[in-house]
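For reproducibility, we list the full input for the MTE complex.
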Amino acid sequence: MRPVPRFRSPLRGPWLTSVFAVVLLVGMPILIITGLLDRVAYGPAQGLPVDVGLLQLPPFDWPTRPSWLFRLTQGVHVGLGLVLIPVVLAKLWSVIPKLFDWPPVRSPAQALERASLLLLVGSLLFEIVTGVLNIQYDYAFGFSFYTGHYIGAWVFVAAFAAHVALKLGTMVRSLRSRSLRRELATPLAETVAEPPDAHGLVAPDPAPPTMSRRGALALVGGGSALLAVLSVGQVLDGPLRHTALLLPRGRDHGDGPNAFPVNRTAAAAGIVAAATGADWRLTLPGAAPVTLSRADLAGLPQHTARLPIACVEGWSTLQTWTGVRLRDLAALAGVPQPASAFVESLEVGPFAQGTLNAGQVLDPDALLALQVNGADLSPDHGFPARIIVPALPGVRCTKWVRSIEFRET
Ligand SMILES: Nc1nc2c(c(=O)[nH]1)N[C@H]1C(S)=C(S)[C@@H](COP(=O)(O)O)O[C@H]1N2
Ligand SMILES: [Mo]
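The corresponding predicted structure, in tokenized form, follows.
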């Protein structure tokens, strides 16, 4: 392949590209698997707006144990996704001459390789942009984040698998061409270009180095470390939350029992005080519908559990919730062994309803919570009552609950 004279960095070459590649080869499968698991956690019952056809995952019931399961898969997915961004950008920089490969098509095989690269880079940038915008709350795109990010992920998985199959041998050979330990000991003054390569990555007339290879690796690693430090606070509670500079909801939430992140405030959800006052009733629809006031609920046996809320945006928090067990409500409604429960909120909109599977209803810590940390729920956290279930994605922990229908089939 003809090298492109325009790109003259003496650092560019198959070895450096392969170092970034091997990091991505380890990181991407973890990112993909945690992403798909999160999708399963949302569940087929979540009623995704678009039918994804063959890309539907085999539905299995997301478990309720360990209670931190979703907190882990979601935290790893968002955290690792952020940390890998500098590596992705560095790897793209390292292969930039390939984008200017000329003539663009020389053989059917090479055309196929270029097309797969276009899909690979395109889908990866799409996943990064939609993912980052989602955790920053900016649902700026005109399509559903869940569907877009999911379909983009499958395009990426296919292109990534093809790319690994085509390049694995080259990567291993290139990694063996130099010693990492020696590179880490090589200062700027002794930095020279890699020998000319068959891929056209190495500049034919390299410019003098302005940075050593170890400097370049430190720059990329430092970028990743900085992203890690700025976002880890959102998944940890306590004072570290103040360091979550990248996350708009990750930081300060005042004092008191209800001082933890709010996804959407009561005002933003259109919940008016009149609807949650003395006239509020919980309805359990069925053959003989049951209606309960908040005082009725408070008079039932109460159970307390320490459970996380983990949001798809990446933040999470562990709190102590008190309320009525969902399985007690199911028994009250005359459906002691429900196959599912359909929950509706006072709110109108995309978060207004959700379905729980049998395990999520029957878990002894699955609650219709009335209190958190010993105080009544605040309006923003779902007063008069909200769903909280171990390992259930935050988005399904419906606030301002109006009715729960326990279903036999
Ligand atoms: N009715 C309703 N319930 C809701 C939401 C909502 O917008 N409306 N947001 C969900 C999301 S995405 C999350 S992460 C949790 C957050 O709960 P919190 O705001 O009490 O922390 O509530 C969930 N329950
Ligand atoms: Mo969320």
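The CA atoms of residues 247 and 364 lie 33 Å apart. The longest helix spans residues 145-176. Both points were considered when choosing residues for closer inspection.
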